Amino acid sequence: MSKDRLIIFDTTMRDGEQSPGASMTRDEKIRIARALERLNVDVIEAGFAIASPGDFEAVKAVAETVKNCAVASLARAAYRDIEEAAAALKNAVRPRIHTFIATSPIHMQYKLQMTPEQVLDQAVRSVKQARGHTDDVEFSCEDASRSEFDFLCRIIEAVIAAGATTINLPDTVGYGEPGQYGEFIGRLIRTVPNADKAIFSVHCHNDLGLAVANSLSAVMHGARQVECTINGLGERAGNASLEEIVMAVRTRADVFPVETRIVTEEIVPASRLVSSITGFPVQPNKAIVGANAFAHEAGIHQDGVLKHRETYEIMRAQDVGWSTNRLVLGKHSGRAAVRARFEELGISFETPEELESAFKRFKELADKKHEIFDEDLQAIAGTVGSEDEAERYQFVALEAISHTGEKPRATVTLSIDGVERQSYAEGDGPVDAVFKAIENEVHSGTKLLLFSINAITTGTDSQAEVMVRLERDARIVNGAGADTDIIVASAKAYLHALNVMGGAVRAHPQIGGI
Ligand code: KIV
Ligand code: ZN
């Protein structure tokens, strides 16, 4: 029996970007969009065009790059929002305007200060306006899971009549419970008279850790679009994770009445790319994409897997993009081999200079480390462009000294606007000393919110991937750095974050209504 298609709507670059510090530049969004296209998602929500000129440019650039997926921009149910979204999507092959307004009593009364009738009128007006620009219009009832059933039925019927082709019912605050939420979606589909004229969609937040369960329950009750993000990135505790939804539907094909068209082998490369661009590490025990997701430690498990894989494994690692042969290259590998391996991993570079820079970093790494793994190449790809000439602060060298019983100290050489400077500091540890030495020169006025280190591969010669989160004037940015020397990786991550703080337009101003 043929199954219904489950539409995968990726919102990594919109809701995912709303995580503090996860903002992305236009070029980073283009790279993520390419990875999403390789994954074969159905819809890419590229951003919120009206939020800032940077967001507008990013949505426009993604719309012009992507050929095989619909590209959406978010827009409040407001005239200017919709015009901006339409303008940013002008050159998309398949533009979608995603407009929304809150429908719960608490949001309508306190946030919007509007009556339900006003909300309904504005929703209908906005959907009609959006339909003037494209046939693909999605309408979201923000805070749907806390909205009144009868009002939802009225507004959904009205916006479908006005031309909405997708109706999204977000669990905005992550309050839903799987049984109840699924039943609620099913009841709406059964009750709204013109429900058959639209696809019903869900968008669940993970505040109670139930985003995936709620989404899948809704699918069992008739939802045919799920909004999700790579690695579950998103506001607060995040959104439903794309990889978990897709693999649940595929692995339990005996239960779910739907299938996706996702190229699952692209899941891990996409996860690594999003992690290195945002600087949000993936926890090792994260389902599907965590480093330990397929690692069997207990002897009894290892024995079972060796005798018959399915004793303990319900999915094959290679089906989600963990390569079986992860040892790829060494110091004698040439440009063509390195480039071919990057291509096999789905990594392409915009310009010959970027490829050259990646190759140079590969050679530097191969000098320090005998075996280069796919993860190393992905880390290299993640940092190409992050140290380009235009960046204000560049790492040159450092010396860090730790003697038991003595205060750790560091001398850092960095280039600021092309001029080399050297700075010395003592600290509570070598990383602290390095950061203090940098600050002695830079005086950034930032506050360090987070510092984390992850080993990219196994072995003590592994590269360390460091993430640094800084805050200044309520703006939060992340920086990432990778090196076989954890102190150097830390310095690179710190400088990367400082460059982001002072550099390209990324973070969008807080917009009321989401
Ligand atoms: O969580 C939410 O309600 C949203 C909507 C704007 C779709 O992100
Ligand atoms: Zn959301």
Describe this structure in words.
- It is a single chain.
- The protein is of the alpha/beta class.
- It has 3 domains: 4-278, Aldolase class I (TIM Barrel, Alpha-Beta Barrel), CATH 3.20.20; 326-383, no CATH class; 393-502, Alpha-isopropylmalate synthase LeuA, regulatory domain (Double Stranded RNA Binding Domain).
- Helices cover 38% and strands 21% of the residues.
- The chain contains 16 helices and 18 strands.
- An 8-stranded parallel barrel has the order 2-3-4-5-6-7-8-9, surrounded by 8 helices.
- Helix 1 (26-39) packs parallel to helix 2, helix 7 packs parallel to helix 8 and helix 15 (430-442) runs parallel beside helix 16 (486-502).
- The longest helix is centred in the last third of the chain and has 17 residues, at 352-368.
- Mean pLDDT is 90; it is low at 504-514.
- The site of zinc ion (ZN) has 6 residues, from loops.
- Zinc ion is lined by residues 15, 170, 172, 203, 205, 235.
Question: Secondary-structure map with pairings?
Answer:
Blueprint lengths: L3 E2 L1 E4 L15 H14 L3 E5 L5 H13 L4 E7 L2 H10 L6 E8 L2 H8 L3 H16 L5 E6 L6 H14 L3 E6 L6 H14 L7 E6 L6 H10 L4 E4 L13 H10 L6 E2 L7 H12 L20 H9 L19 E3 L5 H10 L7 H17 L3 E2 H10 L9 E9 L7 E8 L2 E8 L3 H13 L4 E9 L8 E9 L2 E9 L2 H17 L12
Parallel strand pairs: 1-10, 2-3, 2-9, 3-4, 4-5, 5-6, 6-7, 7-8, 8-9
Antiparallel strand pairs: 11-12, 13-14, 14-15, 16-17, 17-18
Helix pairs in contact: 1-2, 1-10, 2-3, 5-6, 7-8, 10-14, 15-16
The site of zinc ion (ZN) has 6 residues, from loops.
